[in-house]
Amino acid sequence: MDTDPNRILPGIILIAVLTLLNAFFTAAEMALVSVRKTRIKQLVEEGDAKAPTVLALIEHPTNFMATVQIGVTLVGFMASAFAAVSIAEPATEWLITLGLAAGTAKPVAVVGITIILSLFTLVFGEIAPKSLALQHAEKIALNVAGTVRFLSVVGLPAVKLVSFLSDMVVRPFGGHVRFTNPILTEEELKMLVEAGEEEGVIEEEEKEMIHSIFDFTDTVARQVMVPRTDMDAAPVTSTLDELLDIITTSGHSRIPIYEDNVDNIIGVVHAKDLLPVLRQEKRTFDIRAVMREAYFIPETKDVDELLAEFKRGNVQMAIVRDEYGGTAGIVTVEDLLEEIVGEIRDEYDVEEPLIEVLDADHAIVSARMSVDDLNEQMGLDIPESEEYETIGGFVFDLFGRQPNEGETISWSNLDFVVQTLEGGRIDRIQVIRTDRPREESDANGANAKSRKDNGAKG
Questions:
Q1: For the residues of 221-253, what is the DSSP string, one character each?
Q2: How confident is the model at residue 281 (pLDDT cuts 50, 70, 90)?
Q3: Does residue 51 belong to any structural domain of this protein?
Q4: 3-class DSSP state for residue 281?
Q5: Looking at the structure, do residues 11 and 159 belong to the same domain, yes or no?
Q6: Do 323 and 385 share a structural domain?
Q7: Between 250 and which of 50, 148, 191, 232 could a Cys-Cys bridge form, CB atoms 3.0 to 4.6 Å apart?
Q8: 178 within domain boundaries
Q9: Could you tell me which residues come within 8 angstroms of residue 374 by beta carbon, excluding any fewer than 6 positions away?
Q10: Measured between alpha carbons, how far is 168 from 180 in angstroms, rounded to an integer?
Q11: Where does 87-136 have alpha helices with state H?
Q12: Is there a single domain that holds both residue 376 and residue 448?
């Protein structure tokens, strides 16, 4: 038998060349998929000669992705075929000379060559080029784009043929052939963000902001508005001094103006529009003369659409109407931005905790705290309703009227004490869990009892 090692040298060289081709296709695909489109556009504007080709490929990836995948497949088949033809037989003969039986030597040679070829291709044809392409995506993309585009044009008939035959196979099952990567879902993107935080690539604040952006698109005005019980508004009959007092006390620069009642908002006064009036020697004040048109939205308005409308119309505040046409509350640009970046405080905002837990059964809470958050913090089961979202709204709903400071109302095994009012509205509430048996109570005041109580805890 001829066991000259030189017999397998041409086969090894050819397999090495095919592995390099595999590496080229792999690196080209990874680089073109990973390169930043904005950076390539910048290079095009700067006059880079290769950048337009890269841009054309990444804007229409179907053909080049198909070409690359076909190329990788063909190269893999060819490498396996040449290994079987040019290496397997000499390897079998060599194993026989070592004393291995002929019936055993051939399968051992085939398995051994397959394992070695797989490892060689995996390392040098897949992992190494992908890693390099990820680290140097821009440089590699610029250098391979011309060749990839040429191969895409030359290989177009093959791509069309393969696509047609593949479609014939998958169409009966309700599918279609696609060579581009599928678009990531929202949940997959969130998982990537979580992984990025765990790896230290993304900060916790950045992660929270990204999650807030996803939640933002699923939020409506009712969920972010300042409810009517907490909004500052002025009657159309207000004098200049009364209006200035409201602006000064609230710290807000825009005040809704109503006629007869808050359900009939007729405009908005901006604080800066009052400055010319203040400079007048004879102050003849007509609130309608300085009033601007109010911007009305339904409470079901998507906040991402609302933010776009605010931007287009240079609007800072909207009046939120309920399903009956009454005033549900107001929403501002600041309210929308806070949904993404968190609480924004200005010089007029006094930082006050939403909840002050005195003990396991007693807490002082802000009327603006959501029912859901209070339930979670204190382990309560206060029902949620479309009629209210905050604990202040729930307590107001129980009373059925505007309560006074110190008044207490009971619901199930809980006592709610109106600790403070602000501008006639509920501001802070004591929530006290009692020893009374819990009752099955509804959300509209059933089983609620009101009393004047100045002897509550705290």
A1: HHHHSEETTT---EETT--HHHHHHHHHHH--S
A2: low
A3: yes
A4: coil
A5: yes
A6: no
A7: 232
A8: no
A9: 355, 365, 380, 382, 391, 431
A10: 19
A11: 88-97, 102-120, 128-135
A12: yes
CB within 8 A of 126, min separation 6: which ones?
22, 23, 26
CA quadruple 388, 391, 396, 398: dihedral positive or negative?
A: positive
Is the same domain home to 129 and 273? no
3-class secondary-structure state, position 212: helix
- Total residue length of the chain: 458
Separation CA 169–CA 177 (nearest Å):
9
Q: Are residue 304 and residue 428 in the same domain, yes or no?
A: no
**Which two three-digit tokens encode residue 119?**
């490892």
Q: Are 133 and 34 within 8 A, CB to CB?
A: yes
pLDDT digits (tens, 9 = 90+) for 366-399: 998 889 889 998 999 999 887 788 899 899 989 9
128 and 251: one domain? Answer: no
Q: Residue 8, SS3?
A: coil
Domain match, 333 and 364 both: no
For 31, what's the count of Cα atoms within 13 Å in the CB-facing half-sphere? 26
Residue 191, domain extent: 186-211
Report the pLDDT value the prediction gives residue 77, as an integer from 0 to 100.
Answer: 81
The position carrying tokens 């250098």 is: 143
> Is the pTM value of this prediction over 0.85?
no
Partners of residue 352 on adjacent β-strands:
none
Distances in whole angstroms, Cα of residue 432 to Cα of each of 409, 411, 456, 457: 11, 10, 9, 8
| Cα(115)–Cα(255) distance, integer angstroms | 77
Domain assignment of residue 348, yes or no? no
How many Å apart are CA 432 and CA 364, to the nearest integer? 9
* pLDDT tens column, 161-186: 877 777 777 677 765 655 555 555 67
